Amino acid sequence: MAAYDHLPAGILPFLVAREAAAALVGVSTTKFDEMVGDGRMPEPRKVDARILWDTEELRAAVRLLPRRSGKGQDGGSSWDRVLAQ
C-alpha cells in the first residue's frame, strides 16, 4: 500500500482504492468486483472523480461472509442486511 506510506505505522486509511480494498479482503480485483456486484462487499464511495471503499465497511462485510460451515456471524452473508438496519 505504497500510496499510504505517509500514514503512521499500523494506521489504516479510512478510504482505499479498489486494488487496496481487494488486497484487504484477500482476493483479486476481479473477485472483489464480483463480490461488490453480488452484494457481499459494500459499494464504493465517490470523492470527486475517485472511487474509494470505506475500510470499516469492508471489515464489517468480511465478518458477514459465511464460514466454512455456511454461516456468517449474523447467520447470513449479505452486506445488504447491514445497510437495511
Describe this structure in words.
It comes from Teichococcus rhizosphaerae. This is DNA-binding protein. 39% of the residues lie in helices and 12% in strands. The protein has 85 residues and is α+β, with helices and mostly antiparallel strands. The protein has a domain of 59 residues. The longest helix is centred in the C-terminal third of the chain and has 10 residues.
Give the secondary structure arrangement, pairings included.
Layout (H helix, E strand, L loop, with lengths): L14 E2 L1 H8 L3 H9 L7 E3 L2 E5 H10 L14 H6 L1
Antiparallel strand pairs: 1-3, 2-3
Measured by DSSP, the beta-strand proportion falls in 5-15%
**What about the largest sheet?**
3 strands, antiparallel
Point out poorly predicted stretches.
Answer: none
Using DSSP, what is the number of strands?
Answer: 3
List SSEs in N-to-C order: EHHEEHH
Number of helices: 4
- Distance from first to last alpha carbon: 32 Å
Identify the strand order in the major beta sheet. 1-3-2
Helix fraction by DSSP (H/I, runs of at least 4): 25-40%
Shape: globular
Helix/strand class: alpha+beta
Rg is 13 Å
Overall residue-averaged pLDDT value: 86
Relevant terms:
85 residues, three-stranded antiparallel sheet, globular, DNA-binding protein
